[in-house]
Model the fold of this input.
Amino acid sequence: MKKVALTVAVLALGLAACETKTENAADNTAVENAVETDANAAMTVDNALDAAGNAVENAGDAVENAGDAVANAAENATN
Done:
């Protein structure tokens, strides 16, 4: 009878330990997923900032090209 009681106690402790590890694993997975989501959001913001910077650069190039076109037109008109 003592062996059965001891076996049951050991099994109960083992199950309790497994449950704690399972809960910890679930918590860790949730934290990892949250961190990955934050990292993806940061990358999205970075990409949006790059796109905005490219748009500003393209606008600057367009202004420069328009200025060159005006200068060329003025030069052509005098020749």
